[in-house]
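Same chain as my last thread, 181 residues:
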Amino acid sequence: MNNSLKLGLKLFLITSVTAFALALTNNATAPIIEAKAQEKLQESLSVVLPADSYEEVEVDGKPETLEKIYKATGAEGDGYVFQILSPGGYGGDIEFLIGCDKDHNITGFAPLNHAESAGFGKQMEEDFFKEGMIGVNMDGEVKASESGGENEIVGISGATISTGTILRGINDAASVLGELN
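reply #2:
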């Protein structure tokens, strides 16, 4: 019994020291990680809709998938950038940005975080998918097709779940677009 108590005490001390070391490491790296995330967000904002400034706007009753909405103001015209966290992807939630101009046409797409499978849903990171978004009008319901169109993005072949999750987020953004202008 005495030997068991000593082993238990040693294990407690080891785990306590380890937990303390992890807490110190987390406190030291958390600001750096947050700064990198903000830097990546600013870079992605300028990719989906180049502008001089981005101001976060609040919309009452917006869908939960819309994390943030930014009004983009610049020499090339105004527009909006939507930061979307759409649940239900094949690998979990898909977080992405889309930009749209004053005519409600998509100007860009940038995936932020996802766990989609390589070769399928991960194709959202490829140029053909990003370029297939540009010019799609968000005034009506946005759908997907093999070649894209006025209200259709280029779908990812073999990744119906991922494409549907992205479409759900885009259509949620489209639902509040009329309130923003």
